[in-house]
Design goal:
Layout: H1 5-28, H2 45-48, H3 68-95, E1 100-106, H4 110-118, E2 133-139, E3 142-148, E4 163-169, H5 173-191, E5 197-203, E6 226-230, E7 241-244, H6 261-265, E8 270-277, H7 283-294, E9 300-305, H8 314-325, E10 327-332, H9 341-348, E11 352-356, H10 373-377, E12 383-385, H11 391-398, H12 403-436
Parallel strand pairs: 1-3, 1-4, 4-5, 5-6, 6-7, 8-9, 8-10, 10-11, 11-12
Antiparallel strand pairs: 2-3
Length: about 450
C-alpha cells in the first residue's frame, strides 16, 4: 500500500513540531534531574569561551564532588565519636588509682630484712654473694625497686625516679663514716633537684646514740623527710621518726623461713635452746648457771662461747637452725641492747621467745612499755621475765602441756609473726605515701 506523498510530508511536519514542542517544554519548564553518575566535572564559563590562565593554557575549574555534603557530615560525626572516646579514656585514666615510684638502696644488711622479709620482694640473682642484686614489687600505691650489693656504689645506680629510701648502718663509728658519705651523696642529688624525697632506714646504735644523723633530718634543717630507726630511740614520734624492727641476722645469711605442717605439728625433743656468747658477769652467765643448777641444761640445747663471732659457718648456722626447730622455747637474754636478732629468728621457727625484759645502759627511751615497745605494742605472744631465776618454774609448767596445746601455741606464734611483718609493710608503705605524695 502506497502512502501519498502529501500525507507523508504532513506526517513528517507533525512529528517535527511535536518533538520541537517537547524539547522546548523540557528546556524552559521542566526541573532537571541530573544523574550523579554524570555530574562529575563542571567547567567554568571562561573555559567554554576560550579563557586562559597565566597567559597560556585554558583551565578547568576545581573538581566538584557530588558527595561533598555527605562527606562533611560523615567526618563531623566521626570526629564527635573520636572526641567522645577520648573523653571516656580520660575519665578512666582519672578514676584509675595513681601510682608512684620509689627506689630503695640497701647499703646495710637490714635492707634485706626490709625487702625480703617485710616487703616480701624478689631478688635477682638469687645468689646471696652476688655483687649486684635487684628486684621490684608493688605495695599500696607504690612501685618499689630495690638495689643492693657491693657493686651498688655512688653515682652508678640507675636513678629513674625522684623518691629514694636509703638503708644504712649506724651501729659503730666505722659504719657511721660510711653512711655519712652516702648521705652526702644523696644530699647532692637533692640540691641538684634530681631527688625530691628521702627516707632513711637506720640500724641505730645499740645505746641509741644516733646524734650523727640528726643534722640531716628535715626537722633540723636537713633533707631527710623520714627516719625509720631500730631500737627504742627517744626520737620516735610517729610523725617523721618511726621505730623499725631489728629483724633476723641477714648479714649471717639467716634465711626467710616459710612455715610448713612439719614445723607446726612436729614433736620437739627439747624444752629450750640458747646458743650464743656468754660475757663475764652478765645476765647470760646467770642464765647458764640457773640451767645447770636446776638440771634443765639436760633438756635444752645450749652452746656457749666466750667471744662474739660476726659470721656463721655453714655448719654453725645449720646447728643453730636445728636448735630453733627442735625447741619449744628460745631463751633471749639481753646483750648490749634488749632487742636481739634471736627474738625474730625464734619467731621464724615457732619457738616461743623467753625474753629478758630489762633496760640496758644507754640513752634509749624508758617508760612503762620499754624496752621492746614496738613488739609489745604489736601484742607479741612472748614470755617476758625480769630475772632468769623465774625460768625453772616456767619450764616445769611446760611439761604439763599436751602436744595439741603446744601445736596451737606454735601456730599462733607463726601467725602473729606473719601478721607483724604485714603490719610493718603496710605501715612503711602508708607513711611514705602520705609523706612523699600527699599533694600528688
Amino acid at each position: 500500500m502506497k502512502i501519498p506523498k502529501r500525507k507523508l510530508f504532513l506526517l513528517i511536519i507533525f512529528a517535527y513540531v511535536a518533538f520541537s514542542l517537547y524539547a522546548a517544554y523540557n528546556v524552559f519548564f521542566s526541573t532537571k534531574v541530573i544523574s550523579r553518575v554524570h555530574r562529575v566535572v563542571k567547567k567554568e564559563t571562561g573555559a567554554l569561551s576560550g579563557g586562559v590562565r597565566d597567559g597560556g593554557a585554558p583551565y578547568v575549574a576545581d573538581e566538584w564532588n557530588p558527595w561533598e555534603d555527605e562527606q562533611v557530615e560523615y567526618n563531623s560525626a566521626l570526629n564527635k565519636k573520636r572526641e567522645a572516646f577520648k573523653r571516656q579514656l580520660d575519665r578512666i585514666d582519672k578514676n584509675k588509682p595513681k601510682r608512684y615510684k620509689v627506689q630503695i638502696w640497701g647499703k646495710a644488711a637490714i635492707g634485706l630484712y626490709l625487702w625480703e622479709h617485710v616487703l616480701e620482694g624478689p631478688l635477682n640473682p638469687t645468689d646471696k654473694v652476688a655483687q649486684w642484686r635487684e628486684g621490684e614489687l608493688q605495695s599500696g600505691k607504690i612501685d618499689f625497686s630495690f638495689y643492693t650489693g657491693p657493686a651498688v656504689v655512688q653515682g652508678h645506680v640507675p636513678l629513674e625516679m625522684n623518691s629514694l629510701v636509703l638503708v644504712l648502718n649506724g651501729r659503730e663509728q666505722q659504719k657511721v663514716s660510711y653512711s655519712t658519705r652516702w648521705l652526702e651523696h644523696v644530699q647532692a642529688l637533692v640540691q641538684s633537684h634530681t631527688v625530691s624525697h628521702v627516707a632513711v632506714v637506720l640500724l641505730g646504735n645499740e645505746h641509741c646514740n644516733n646524734d650523727w644523723i640528726s643534722p640531716h633530718l628535715k626537722g633540723n634543717g636537713g633533707f631527710v623527710d623520714l627516719l625509720f630507726v631500730v631500737y627504742d630511740s627517744p626520737w620516735v614520734n610517729d610523725k617523721d621518726v618511726f621505730q623499725w624492727p631489728l629483724g633476723v641476722a641477714t648479714y649471717r645469711q639467716f634465711p626467710l623461713i616459710r612455715p610448713n605442717a612439719q614445723l607446726i605439728t612436729s614433736n620437739r625433743p627439747y624444752l629450750c635452746n640458747f646458743l650464743g656468747t656468754v660475757y663475764k658477769n652478765s645476765s647470760r652467765e646467770t642464765l647458764m648457771n640457773v640451767l645447770k643448777q636446776s638440771g634443765l641444761d639436760k633438756e635444752c640445747i645450749t652452746t656457749a662461747r666466750e667471744k662474739w663471732l660476726p659470721q656463721e659457718t655453714a655448719d654453725s648456722l645449720r646447728h643453730y637452725q636445728t636448735a630453733l626447730a627442735q625447741s619449744e622455747f628460745t631463751l633471749c637474754p639481753v646483750g648490749i641492747n634488749t632487742e636481739s636478732y634471736r627474738i625474730y629468728e625464734a619467731c621464724s621457727y615457732g619457738s616461743v621467745p623467753v625474753v629478758e625484759d630489762v633496760l640496758t645502759p644507754g640513752t634509749c627511751a624508758s617508760g612503762p612499755s620499754s624496752p621492746l615497745r614496738l613488739l609489745k605494742a604489736a601484742g607479741a605472744p612472748f614470755i617476758f621475765i625480769s630475772d632468769w631465776k623465774e625460768l625453772p618454774a616456767i619450764l616445769e609448767s611446760e611439761k604439763g602441756m599436751s602436744q595439741e596445746q603446744r601445736v596451737d601455741r606454735r601456730r599462733r606464734l607463726l601467725e602473729w609473726y606473719s601478721s607483724f611483718r604485714q603490719q610493718m609493710k603496710e605501715r612503711f608503705t602508708k607513711v611514705i605515701e602520705e609523706s612523699f605524695f600527699k599533694s600528688g
